Amino acid sequence: MAADTLVIERLNRTFTSPAGDVTALSNIALKVKKGELITLIGPSGCGKSTLLKIVAGLDSDYSGTVLLNDKPIEGPSIEKGFIFQEPRLFPWLTVEKNIAGNLSLKDSKVRARVDELIALVRLKGFEKSYPRELSGGMAQRVSIARALLRNPEVLLLDEPFGALDAFTRAHLQEVLLDIWQKNRTTMLFVTHDLDEAVFLAERVVIMNPRPGHIRTVLPIDLPFPRKRASQSFQELRRKVLSEFEKVEEPAVDRDHGAGI
Ligand code: ADP
Ligand code: MG
């Protein structure tokens, strides 16, 4: 049995504001094995981004236990790669420099690693391009490569393909699975796309809002590569959908500006 890379127990996170308190996460428990690919799905405001930010070390105002390789999370670090919906590249840097970050490409080891990552995310020939010359899908592949540079223990992806068109999205899902199969990086992938959740995951975590909590965790026991048109895929998709449809939408949106 693989070791648990991530252990979350009794995790609570409440935001206080003059308008009232919002419990973004209530009693979350989740264990993620080394090399596992987990997708998190749930309606807007159920705490998906909050959970990812806590694991990333970007939010420490919680109660409960969050351990990465048996150690409490202490701020952001290279152990945790984070990928946002927008690529967040430096516009004045080339693709290869965006990936290398503060490491020098004159270092032969860095050069080799960056070249390896560029091949992995299928951007050969675009090393010297600038972000403005890239499509949205290409830019997101640069941010994936950048997050992988120092072999993070866990890759956290917050609706990374949410802004892309359906074809680009399907392509990037293939790219991500290819990366996962080659590197076996542990991944926590947030999406509100049911199809994406089932296509990528070994387990789908379904969350409910108000307060944000885990409703259920469904294993997706389908071999890779998966065929969306296959009966077994469609059956599992239906199963996730039926769980998902049980999720009650809040009648009144009490806290304005819930994260989308
Ligand atoms: P999701 O990513 O699932 O859409 P979020 O994690 O962004 O949900 O938000 C969960 C809940 O916490 C929402 O009700 C949201 O309004 C609230 N929330 C998130 N961040 C903050 C914040 N910085 N201050 C106050 N409330 C917040
Ligand atoms: Mg979010």
3D structure, described in words:
One of its GO terms (molecular function) is ATP hydrolysis activity. This protein has 260 residues and is α/β, with parallel strands linked by helices. The chain has seven helices and ten strands. A six-stranded mixed sheet has the order 6-7-8-3-9-10, sandwiched between helices. Strand 7 (154-158), helix 5 (166-183) and strand 8 form a beta-alpha-beta unit. The protein is globular. Residues 251-260 have low confidence and may be disordered. Magnesium ion (MG) binds next to helix 1.
Would you report the number of β strands? 10
Radius of gyration: 19 Å
Helix run count: 7
What are the distinct ligands in this entry? Answer: adenosine-5'-diphosphate, magnesium ion
Order of helices and strands: EEEHEEEHHHEHEHEEH
Biggest sheet statistics:
6 strands, mixed
Count of the domains: 2
Give the CATH class of the largest domain.
Alpha Beta
The first-to-last residue Cα distance is 36 Å
Structural class: alpha/beta
State the fourth-level CATH superfamily of the largest domain.
P-loop containing nucleotide triphosphate hydrolases
Question: Helix fraction?
Answer: 25-40%
Give the strand order of the largest sheet, numbering strands 1, 2, ... along the chain: 6-7-8-3-9-10
